[in-house]
TrEMBL record:
The record marks 34, 140-141, 144, 149, 156, 302, 491 as: Interaction with DNA. The lineage of its organism: Bacteria, Bacillati, Bacillota, Clostridia, Eubacteriales. HAMAP family: Topoisom_1_prok. Residues 164-169 are annotated as: Interaction with DNA. Residues 130-559 form the Topo IA-type catalytic domain. Its EC number is 5.6.2.1. Keywords: DNA-binding, Isomerase, Magnesium, Metal-binding, Topoisomerase, Zinc, Zinc-finger. GO terms for molecular function: DNA binding; DNA topoisomerase type I (single strand cut, ATP-independent) activity; zinc ion binding. It comes from Acetanaerobacterium elongatum. Monomer. The gene is topA. Releases the supercoiling and torsional tension of DNA, which is introduced during the DNA replication and transcription, by transiently cleaving and rejoining one strand of the DNA duplex. Introduces a single-strand break via transesterification at a target site in duplex DNA. The scissile phosphodiester is attacked by the catalytic tyrosine of the enzyme, resulting in the formation of a DNA-(5'-phosphotyrosyl)-enzyme intermediate and the expulsion of a 3'-OH DNA strand. The free DNA strand then undergoes passage around the unbroken strand, thus removing DNA supercoils. The keyword Magnesium applies. One of its GO terms (biological process) is DNA topological change. Residues 4-114 form the Toprim domain. This is DNA topoisomerase 1.
């Protein structure tokens, strides 16, 4: 490789894409991620000597390291082109040490986007390795290692062998546990509403109006109060009172950050954070696109910045004008303000080539890649479009001495909503257009309905809402949200229940122990302040060893106190009792967790050693043998539904069984989701099917 330049990146896909743009004279190779780290078998940090880390080559990468050294020695110049963030900077620093490169030389290059323009710009601006970025990453890694290696053995002795503690993960679990405590403590209260359905000017079309009160809002607490008001409203005239019209402006959401991308992919695509980041990584590193070759389709996907380059704004404006017309452009390009604690090293997540539409690349992408690219592309283009305008109307409807309220809107100018609207964790109430209303006009009463309601406890966290809470509380950084959720699920502190995250008994016991003895570790404010300190290291305003010194002194004292206070004590994790009765001894079986997951066990162990697999019934009946249809998981973890008598009975389906039965043949009906979703009969040849109910119908 004489007279050549060596470029080292992290992944083969990224290497392939960059090689295309650099051409001859450059060799591009992959380090396959980290090549050095703290050892797995011991702490690897010398606390007594300024927290000096003892890095070792990662096991299994010996041959790769040899080949990298050989390639570097044979090259005229070596460029370190790992990802443009703290972790990427640290990987480049480790590579420099292994390859005997001077970290102060200008051998570090970064690419915010892996396109011809992005690669050219990166190669034109080589710099020295940013040691402040490296130290910020080292401080985080060492901090997490010290907490894990000091705290985990304590949990082994006091709760259960094999447990591990993480700094950010512990706070995430606490958020979920605290929410579960709120749900349990919530006291449901009854309340009633009175809803009128009215029509105007002899029209058949009805519109809703909600009971408000008199001079002020009346809270209806019970049926007796509702009935009393209804009696007063019997036979009364409904007359239009004050009518207020206006125009409401609706602005587009900013382009994605890592957090908002993960939230929106969860809401709109049903993706877990890990799945989102895998697809985003692939789109950033480059895919083979027909007519373009290997190209990185999005900018760097780990960011909390909202900054957008002028070139990207200009490209988006050109596309918007050509596709929708000039009126869909704002008066001036939109600029979004990044949060104070955000790292502004690179841009928001956007398509690297805004003119490249999702439909143009669809045939070249996997299903996940296409769905995520479409979401990122639409969000970005919409963020550069004109404001939507809504004509609003709000009317007071007078009935005797009471007031009903009606409101609605119609679209005056659709603006950015012609392309995209941001999803919501909670759906907005229906808000439709009202007919023209004039003050003093009498309306026709079509229905007057009392409705009983009960206040609801706060919802459990979903992945989307947990990521939002972590970001709002300043816990973790863009690169940590996905691995944090993955870790707390894998360690058994949290489990999924539908789309919700629910603490396990182990998670609750461990969190309560931590709250009692290690308040700072599970305190959101303390964890957020530590993140701010790491940010100060990154900007060169603080020295990383002093931050670790400050933390460790208090932590060591807290650990010693906890050891003393809990001497001879072990916390029992309560078993979850089920309704399944042990056929050997009559006790109610409990759920245990073993090396292969959860199973049912008799609580009478060791006298009774009965165990069973956990089966999840769906309420469906097998159309072949009348056995129970159970929810099962494939080897890859995908949920499917099969007969309890498998393998004797071969019935299986990916579609969810309902508790409804076919009106034609009596077999279980299955629900198929998606764009062409429907409910259909599970019996082959029956042919019965019907459309899926709307969300409104399901609620009713």
């Amino acid at each position: 490789m004489a007279n050549s330049n060596l470029v080292i990146v992290e992944s083969p896909a990224k290497a392939k894409t960059i090689k295309k743009y650099l051409g001859s004279g450059f060799e591009v190779v992959a380090s396959m991620g980290h090549i050095r780290d703290l050892p797995k078998s011991k702490m690897g940090v010398d606390i007594e000597h300024h927290f000096e880390p003892k890095y070792v080559d990662i096991k299994g990468k010996e041959d790769l390291i040899k080949s990298l050294k050989k390639a570097a020695q044979a090259s005229d110049a070596v460029y370190l082109a790992t990802d443009p963030d703290r972790e990427g900077e640290a990987i480049s620093w480790h590579l420099a040490h292994l390859l005997n490169l001077n970290p102060a030389d200008t051998n570090r290059i970064t690419f915010n986007e892996i396109t011809k323009t992005g690669v050219k710009a990166g190669m034109a601006a080589p710099r020295a390795i940013d040691i402040d970025l490296v130290n910020a990453q080292q401080a985080r890694r060492i901090l997490d290692r010290v907490v894990g290696y000091k705290l985990s053995p304590f949990l082994w002795r006091k709760v259960r062998r094999g447990l591990s503690a993480g700094r950010v993960q512990s706070v995430a679990v606490r958020l979920i546990v605290d929410r579960e405590d709120e749900i349990r403590a919530f006291k449901t209260e009854e309340y009633w509403t009175i809803d009128a359905k009215l029509s105007a000017n002899g029209q058949r079309k009805m519109f809703p109006a909600k009971f408000y009160g008199k001079n002020k809002k009346i809270e209806i607490k019970n049926k007796e109060q509702a009935d009393s008001i209804l009696n007063e409203l019997k036979g009364c005239r409904f007359v239009v009172g004050a009518v207020k019209t206006g125009v409401r402006k609706k602005s587009p959401a900013p382009p994605f950050t890592t957090s908002t991308m993960q939230q929106e992919a969860s809401r709109k695509l049903g993706f877990q954070a890990r799945r989102t980041m895998k697809a985003a990584q692939e789109l950033y590193e480059g895919v083979e696109v027909e007519g373009y070759g290997a190209v990185g389709l999005i900018t760097y996907m780990r960011t909390d910045s909202l900054r957008v380059s002028k070139e990207a704004q200009d490209d988006a404006a050109q596309y918007i004008e050509q596709r929708y017309g000039k009126k869909y452009l704002p008066d001036s390009p939109r600029v979004y303000k990044t949060k104070n604690n955000a790292q502004d090293a690179h841009e928001a997540i956007r398509p690297s080539m805004p003119s490249l539409t999702p439909e143009q690349v669809k045939s070249s992408l996997t299903g996940d890649q296409y769905k995520l690219y479409k979401l990122i592309w639409e969000r970005f283009i919409a963020s550069q479009m004109a404001t939507a305008l809504l004509d609003t109307v709000a009317a007071d409807i007078l009935a005797n001495d009471y007031v009903f309220k009606a409101s609605g809107f119609s679209v005056k100018f659709d603006g950015f909503t012609v392309l995209y609207e941001e999803g919501r964790d909670e759906e907005d109430e229906d808000n439709t257009a009202l007919p023209p209303l004039k003050q003093g006009e009498e309306l026709k009463e079509r229905a007057l309905e009392p409705n009983q309601h009960f206040t609801q406890p706060p919802a459990r966290y979903t992945e989307a809402s947990l990521i939002k809470a972590l970001e709002e509380n300043g816990i973790g950084r863009p690169s940590t949200y996905s691995p944090t959720i993955t870790t707390i699920l894998q360690r058994g502190y949290v489990e999924r229940e539908a789309k919700s995250l629910k603490p396990t008994a182990l998670g609750e016991v461990t969190t309560n122990l931590m709250k009692d003895h290690f308040k700072k570790i599970v305190d959101a404010e303390f964890t957020a302040s530590m993140e701010k300190n790491l940010d100060l290291v990154e900007t060169g305003e603080r020295e990383w060893v002093s931050i670790l010194d400050e933390f460790y002194g208090d932590f060591a004292d807290t650990l010693a106190t906890a050891e003393k206070e809990m001497e001879g004590t072990r916390v029992k994790v309560p078993d979850e009792e089920t309704d399944v009765v042990c056929e050997l001894c009559g006790r109610k079986m409990v759920i245990k967790t073993g090396r292969f997951g959860k199973f049912l066990a008799c609580p009478g162990f060791p006298e009774c050693k009965n165990t069973k697999k956990i089966v999840q019934e769906t309420g469906g009946v097998c159309p072949l043998c009348n056995g129970r249809i159970l929810s099962k998981k494939s080897k890859k973890g995908k949920v499917y539904f099969g007969c309890e008598h498998n393998p004797k009975c071969a019935f299986m389906t990916w579609d969810e069984p309902t508790k409804e039965f076919c009106p034609q043949c009596g077999s279980t009906l299955l629900k198929k989701g998606g764009k062409n979703g429907r409910i259909y009969c599970s019996k082959e040849g029956c042919g019965f099917e019907k459309p899926l109910p709307s969300k409104k119908d399901e609620q009713e």
